[in-house]
Amino acid sequence: MQNKIEIFNNQVIINYNLAYPKSREVLLKSHTFTKFVQYFIEYQETDNANMYAYLTKNGELNSKEASCDFCHFLRLLSIFTCEELKDEYYLSNKDATLSVIEEMYRNWRSLQRFGYMKSDNSTDFGINTLVAFDSASNDLILRTYRLFEEKLMGRPNLVYRQVQAGTNACFSVHTLDKVWADEYAALQDIPMIDTVMLRTPMILHPKSSKRTGMFTEIDTQPMTYFKKGESNWFCYPCKVGTLLCFVYFNSKYMSSALSMANLFELATKEESAQKPDLVVIFGNDDGNDATNFYYDEANDIWVGCISDNPRIEYFGYLKKMCLTLHNLAQMKKGWLPIHGAFVNIYLKDGTKKGIMLMGDSGAGKSESIEALKATAGDMIREVEVVFDDMGTIHLEDGVPYGQGTEIGAFIRLDDLDPGTPYRDMDRSIFMAPENPNSRMIQPAAPYRVVVHNHKIDLFAYANNYTNEFGLKKLTVQEVKDTCKLGKRMALGTTQEVGISTTYFANPFGPMQKQELCEPIIDTMFQALEDNGVFVGEIYTHLGFDKSNRKGLNIAAQQLLEFIQKKD
């Protein structure tokens, strides 16, 4: 990205290397500020006709001329008093000009705002450099707004709010010296993210809040139709479980891509120089409106491609493509992907149990864990999250172990206890909180915990559609058949509503490659039986009435009783 500033798709991206405001004078004289003022004036033409007429002097000026004129006035106002500028047009009606300033500030803060800078041109670059730059910019914008506000009001404010006036997030980038294979040469010059700072809580308002369609395999390498178009691109290199994944994204989806910092461990510069296991192209301008994946056998890379389309603003497209590629790669190694939740429960009396619950979206996996926490109360010393959506079971010396994929959790707010989202809101990202299926992404576990081998004591299928209560032990064959059927009462979190079935409750890899997954299921379930793992079903009742927590509470009580049993 060579431009100083880009404003599009309800977001603004600032290149700090080209447009960093070191002082108020520099800020007000900058092309970056003038461009934003012009954007604001043009927005008023349809949003507020009276304000547009005021700023353009009743049509005497076009938007570019009006932005230059208003910026000139602000530069004067930053130095002189209103009395000294009494002949200025914009002081003939102070209330109108104050309304312009307040609306401009509100409009600026309504955008998703991002800043970035290069890290490979500075020998002493570090996170403190990035934080210092961004924080100083935030402070400058806030102080400048207050200066104009107080001069026009003719008095100081009595209450000051230290809001996020600068960016929502910032990051640093570097470029690769060489790409790992000739087929991917078009990706070489795309900047790689190496540091991210999020200003949380971060509230995003994507246009879409639901995922539709399926991820389908194709026999054409997506690199053959990769199109940058007129957009700029960046890469978020991350670790999905133990695998290295490079997510190349169209900058119009910056908010979704940077939200990954709360979900997938960011790879180091050294790791980013290696060949990835997975590659995701997000927002490809190919006109296909497709969500496809391809296996590059020659380079042993799974490649996912998601077409540019307004619907993919929903974060689930990005997250689930990464997990689908991960699951496909792990199944080739003989690992079994699990769509579910896995936690280690540590009681204060020293008891520790590994609890793995499996089920498709809306089945009640995370909700059961939350209900368990509430039921156990002070008895629990720690709940260690291994995964909250997707993980794996693999064997070592005949023993089944669980591992996770994500350092965070992408949680549907509708199904949580009302107080739950607020406990970690200072570290969280909220997505479309005003809409149904609103979500939050919050940190859940350190990466070292996620990729550690964890012993499984209980494996249960989360059943949200059967009118039974509690936790029920079944034979391994019964549980295996139930898991393969993947039945649930769909709650509309995707395109499905009502009773549905999905192979192994996992449309992200196992469903697409059933012939590969089938023998792995047999092997892992036999290992669960051989190692004395409790297998069964837990009945959540969420498919009947989300507001009625009776089923969850009964299940949580019986789950607690299992955990309390001494081995």
Automatic annotation (TrEMBL):
Q: According to the lineage, what is the superkingdom?
A: Bacteria
Q: What is this protein called?
A: Phosphoenolpyruvate carboxykinase (ATP)
Q: Which organism is it from?
A: Holdemanella hominis
The upper taxonomy is:
Bacteria, Bacillati, Bacillota, Erysipelotrichia, Erysipelotrichales
